[in-house]
Amino acid sequence: MRNYMRVLQIAFTYIGTIVGAGFATGREILQFFTQYGHWATLTILLTTGLFIWLGTKIMTISKRIGAQSFEDLNKFLFGEKAGSWISLFMFIILLGVNSIMLAGAGSVFVEHLNLNYQTGLFVTMIGTYFILRKGIQSIMTMNSLVVPMMLTLSVAIVSQTIHTPGATRFLTLTTDHSLPSVWLAPLLYTAFNLVMAMPVLVPLGSQTESARTVKWGGIIGGTGVGFMLMAAHFAMSAHMPGISQYEIPMGSIANQLGWLVQIIYLILIFLEIFSTFVANIYGITLQVQQRTSLSPRVITLGIMVFCYFFSQFGFSSLLSLLYPTFGGLCLLWVLRLTLFGTPQVRDK
Questions:
Q1: Which residues cross the membrane (predicted)?
Q2: Radius of gyration of the chain (CA)
Q3: Is there a domain that residue 59 lies in?
Q4: Which has the least CB within 10 A, 47, 204, 234, 294?
């Protein structure tokens, strides 16, 4: 029973780390999948398979080498020198991405709660600090509460969409995009999200005793991400092309399910941003801890102060500047991971 619970904790942490602000609002899914019409069903299946295979591989390799942070994994994959430089670049980009996450949390407070932007930033940072006092276990516990709520909402949205006139449109939607762009989109999406999840997947794998537990956690987690992708795509396809005009397309769907679902959805948007922010801060703290003699709490505070400063530039401007830069590195990293031989880890 203990192993089963650990499998679910790993799976939920994997899902919670992948599912961030772009996923929750539906913009990512619309951009990388739904806009490509009926092809999206196949590309989501491909993405699900990649999340299962490569996510499990990250955790399995990390367990084999006893990686303490994502820098250890980079050095193992690319060599000592190249791995250090790649880790440094990832560190800088992850700081920027965390600033984006923090800015997104502030935007939720402004746009949906009519509260001050700074209030959202401080609530997020204070919550992160106290959660991280107990390390990876606190992240797993948090996601064990948040992710079932996400999955329940996905099921509710699917159940509602089945009864709409456009329920089968995900099979018939056409697209003007070329086939190369259709099939490049899921690769970019998977690469970016796996690299973003790496700071927490590495310690998650290395700190788990059983290799079998790691394997099944990766399988269930990747499958869960795929289910949520398919559920959101299914729902948005039924409302295409009109839904593409909304900044938060999934929000417009949630509005049709009643005030209770709207409140739950709003809470989940914040929690999804929050859980991803916490996980990334934890992973970056581990990397800095390897290079300095500072305590984890001091490092965490320093990183959050940095993110707070850059979050003042706002959500949209940071997003447009940093995400394209990160894309090329993500594809390179995932290609190296894909070509790397499957590690043999003795089970327990």
A1: 7-24, 36-54, 85-109, 115-132, 144-162, 182-204, 216-236, 256-282, 294-315, 321-339
A2: 19
A3: yes
A4: 294
Q: How many CA atoms lie within 13 A of 332 on its CB side?
A: 12
Residue 346 lies in a domain: no
DSSP state of 69: S
Helix pair angle (39-65, 315-339), 10° resolution: 70
Cβ distance 230 to 47 under 8 Å?
A: no
Q: Compute the CA torsion angle 130, 135, 136, 140 (nearest 10 deg).
A: -30
CATH (domain of 316): 1.10.4160.10
Question: Model pTM?
Answer: 0.84
Q: Could you tell me if residue 185 is inside a domain? A: yes
Q: Where are the alpha helices (DSSP H) in the chain?
A: 2-18, 21-25, 27-32, 39-65, 70-78, 80-113, 117-131, 136-161, 179-206, 211-237, 249-255, 259-291, 296-311, 315-339
Query: Domain tally for the chain?
Result: 1
Segment 226-282, tens digit of pLDDT: 999 998 888 888 878 777 776 667 777 777 777 777 778 778 888 888 888 888 888
